UniProtKB/TrEMBL annotation:
The keyword Phosphoprotein applies. Residues 16-130 form the Response regulatory domain. This is ActR/PrrA/RegA family redox response regulator transcription factor. PANTHER family: RESPONSE REGULATORY DOMAIN-CONTAINING PROTEIN (PTHR44591:SF3), STRESS RESPONSE REGULATOR PROTEIN 1 (PTHR44591). It comes from Propylenella binzhouense. Keywords: Phosphoprotein, Transcription, Transcription regulation. The modification 4-aspartylphosphate is found at D65.
Length: 186
């Protein structure tokens, strides 16, 4: 994680930031880096801890890991959005795919970052204006990656049911299991 500082201007009237991640070392590094950028940070290492903190004081900003030990970070995003609709939340994940990115945005996340994301990326995602357009990728997805993303989307739509996904994709179930067990192609 880079420690290059952005201008230390506060992110607004309410600089409260909740960071939710079960990787404690990353959680502490990101919290310190965001405090240096003007945020008042709170941390949580689980869905239940995060929801309890949202109940007591809904944050203006949030950075939430997608997969946590006790559940899905999207539940935290949804809870934040219900308690404070104007909050700005970003999802972090090491298991990115288009289906979960779309779901995150539908639930109220303003951005979706793949790990490893550094503090500068997180700061930029939290403070960007909604009028800014995303830059087109320098390296677009390969055909293998597009295929993998499509399979992941259908798998999520079938509630992670391998047999149903294989039927819909007209694919043998064991072939699908081998594809799902592999890492995403670049």
């Amino acid at each position: 994680m880079t420690e290059e500082l952005q201008p230390a201007s506060p992110p607004g009237d309410d600089p409260s930031l909740l960071i939710v991640d079960d990787d404690r070392a990353f959680l502490q590094r990101l919290a310190r880096a965001m405090e240096k950028r003007g945020f008042a940070t709170e941390t949580a290492a689980s869905v239940s801890e995060a929801i309890a903190k949202v109940e007591s004081a809904p944050p203006a900003f949030a950075v939430v890991d997608m997969r946590l030990e006790d559940g899905n970070g999207l539940d935290v995003i949804e809870h934040i959005r219900n308690r404070r609709p104007e909050s700005r939340a970003v999802i972090l994940t090491g298991y990115g795919n288009i289906a979960t990115a779309v779901t995150a945005v539908k639930l109220g996340a303003i951005d979706y970052l793949s790990k490893p994301a550094d503090a500068d990326d997180v700061y930029a995602a939290l403070t960007q204006t909604t009028k800014e357009k995303a830059e087109p990728p320098e390296n677009p997805m390969s055909a293998d990656r597009v295929r993998w993303e499509h399979i992941q989307r259908i798998y999520e739509l079938c509630d992670r049911n391998v047999s149903e996904t294989a039927r819909r994709l007209n694919m043998h179930r064991r072939t699908l299991q081998r594809i799902l067990a592999k890492r995403a192609p670049r």
